[in-house]
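Form 7-S
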Amino acid sequence: MDIEKQRQQHQHRQTIINLYNSGILPDMIAMQLDITKDEVHKVIKEQSSEEERKYKAVKRASNASSVGMFYLDAVISVDLAIKHAQYSMWKALKGEVPEFNISMMEEAQNILEKYAKSKVAFVILHIDIVGSTAMSMTLPVERLATIIQTFTQEMSLIIAAYGGYVLKYVGDSVLAFFPVNLEDKYLPCANAVNCAHSMIKIMREGLNPILSEYDYPEMGLVVNKT
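Output:
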């Protein structure tokens, strides 16, 4: 493949991504660019997979003993997290129920077992949806469950990216913890606070705009740190 053709393909792909990120639905993108819906969905899916791969890479880096603790906010792209959340919610509202990933809770269990016979400090983060009660009065149970599951999955991803672990899910809330490094106990606190800020931004700029497009009420977020 020559360089010019590669450049054209890259521009075409970027155009699709830019249109999608601007809030245009995939069906409309296909009509505007005179391409198939499958082609649009393929580009969006590939972009989503790339973003998730970056999440996992950051997670591995934050857990590597050779790297140690550092300010993860410097390497995490919240914009990518927002785009990932938008695509996940869009898929959920289109009827593709998100797969519940229990591996994050398994990681948390492994960490807790590691510290079972020692004293250790944790930063605790509690995330709760504001507005789910109102939604439960207007939405079918299945649709509400899908929205909440998408929310918890996206919050779990950003928690993991910031070096935290999901302890448990309680209804429409998530309870997470960040192990405190004795060498620098302030770093986990900073990562937890930055994680909370990113969560609020993902809710406002990622999940809520897609809910609004489908005429669903927007959700708020309450984050508590101890």
